[in-house]
């Protein structure tokens, strides 16, 4: 049996904040789930299966929290899966949920991804000393700064390009009521004036640490017919590579390039920059926008990315609006961040992105990555049902 | 649905693994064994999925080291579940059903001896009201066993019979870490461990890993004369709250049983880490008296966390490959007191394979 068509008909997310002390983990997830179900015009009773995703359990201090959450998530008496693939997990979780429909196993699947970082301490959770492993103790910024420096050197990028990305995403976030950061008046100059944290990454070029959740309702073709604006899934991909190896290119990892090539092929896309109307790309540190633009094939390697960003091409009115929601730079509930990218891409092609809607968006990319730039999850969604 | 079969299975079980909690040293030879069984190389695998727990390894991203171990340059199509091997296999089975890939290798690992397992597993409980009391999982199983005895659903003799049969069968399983049957009387004379559980009613703390290879249609027939075809695969979860469910039952196991066809099952490998849990599962699955239960010795004699469930499926598969049985069922559980359950029926002929 061939792959069954699948579509997103419900998207929900929480108001992301540094500490959501007003809700428990279950309450946080339900906030996103209830919004997704309302959007889909469904109740929990109609859902066949639930797929949960989140980053390391040490971030909240609960081992396999989906077990205690099962009842609150409406999974009691249903199948429940729990995915964990590092920072890409929100994307991977959405892909596993899609595969339940595409395989013809279920018709209505609910997926939710979350992180409640305020329950524990992410820096501690990432810094447990390991035998025979080099201690990083620098957080993700310290880990990725050398990759960014390498990109700047290779591509001869002007050093203010990161600030252009940060100012753009923080201003886009002002149009997204759910975004964690609503920093009015952010400009390239104000970003450049902010504290240098991990050279060349400044404070304002760094993602926040957020509590938040995102949920999607993914359904089969028949169910999608009832939706006024389904976002059809045109392609999904996951790729992984090693953390350390002499031949690795951390600036433009092969897993990323391979994933993009497989995704475009699956979605029948030959020129991404022309055929994709907007993209939600996982950019936790500003410079990853130009880096991923190149790796994904939107721009030429070694400079095409920063030129596209610098030209304004990734702004709301550019040739390829990137992170109109404000992106990871404005909200980062780690486990949910990937699903937010996937969900925001779906909102765009459904014409349901509100104030940050790109006019006439018909095809969009959702992208997530994790680990040491080694785990990738991506999808393409479209307003039309795919022909392939 | 495509016809998908288990065509490879390798396992390691031991009381204490002398290596890292990410078990990479155990995974490399395990994967080599899978290649040997199938005649494949790494590049013949269309999809990878692993199962493990960060809390068991005592670190975040424990699966990342495992990914390094399988050799992922060039990159692979890969995923991970914070679940037992059986659910990793479920995700891989889905991927094959989408038609994107024809083959998959799934693996799982856990070094339970690195901590105090029954206390580590206590961290699975509801964190706001239950974990602070830190009831350990053996004690919770004891409460469940007591509930069944008090309700007259089973008694200590029935539990000892399960243990005695398991320990006797384990003598024929090189991987079992506890073995040697005696008699029900002898077992009942042993001291209590977590009343009403004696030590032999509880699975031993076990380190280990396992891998399963799946293949679709002709790919499976190329590997084996008698692939173990998956004719049914189903899983469900119940609420965790101990006070809100009847601990003598397992509704999720009953639902899973209703979703697959258990008629004609000759062998059942049940993932019952406590003797009374086998009694619950036999009832929920409605298994006939002539069904052979846990010929491997089962989880009571060896139970590596995160591969213990998948190993049950692998054990049934090996009996299909050898022609010993034509139909069997493998079961996996997760969560305290049989909260989450998966059933996988395997048959020697794919005709009528359905889900």
From TrEMBL, chain A:
Pfam families: Thiolase_C_1, TsaD
Thiolase C-terminal domain location: 245-374
Stored InterPro entries: Gcp-like_dom (IPR000905), Thiolase (IPR002155), Thiolase-like (IPR016039), Thiolase_C_2 (IPR055140)
Location of the Gcp-like domain: 31-119
PANTHER family named in the record: ACETYL-COA C-ACETYLTRANSFERASE, NON-SPECIFIC LIPID-TRANSFER PROTEIN-LIKE 2
Protein name: Thiolase domain-containing protein
Native organism: Nocardioides mangrovi
From TrEMBL, chain B:
Gene3D superfamilies: 3.40.47.10
InterPro entries per record: Thiolase-like
SUPFAM superfamilies linked: Thiolase-like
PANTHER family reported in the protein's UniProt record: ACETYL-COA C-ACETYLTRANSFERASE, NON-SPECIFIC LIPID-TRANSFER PROTEIN-LIKE 2
Protein name: Thiolase domain-containing protein
Natural source organism: Nocardioides mangrovi
